[in-house]
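Lecture 7 notes: from sequence to structure.
We start with the chain below.
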Amino acid sequence: MLANDIQVTVGKYEESGRPDVDPESIQTVEHPPGFAELAGYLASDCERSIFKRFRWLTARNLLMMQAEISSLEERIRCWDQEDRMTIETQGPSASYQLYTTLTSWDALVESAKTNKRDAEKLEVFTTLRNLLPTYRKYSRISNVQPI
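Predicted structure tokens for the same chain:
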């Protein structure tokens, strides 16, 4: 018997001797050899599960995501500056469509069908919508604090 009364035989794991488990409900689970068998063994007791964290790769991936997010942020800041200048120089009536795309998601989506710049904006915001939650998730997991 191993720790916590897990009886190990080739490809089979039986839970036994646990006070919270009815002895009648104990069942043997069979797995093929290899990763499936090892996963079954590790899953039979959370305390013996040991997994590599890949901290270096996680940090590297976070740095790459950070660089990508920063690049996209810079593009957005440039567009914002250009849009502000356009509105200031052309006046509100001449830049009505631009103003509309800056204040309405639906207008931006519609404009993106014919306007290459708005299509780029839409693509950047859609990319960020997927990238930012992933970045935040992995920065929490790796104990790295986002700036």
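Points to note: Residues 3-48 form one domain. The chain has two domains: 3-48, 55-141.
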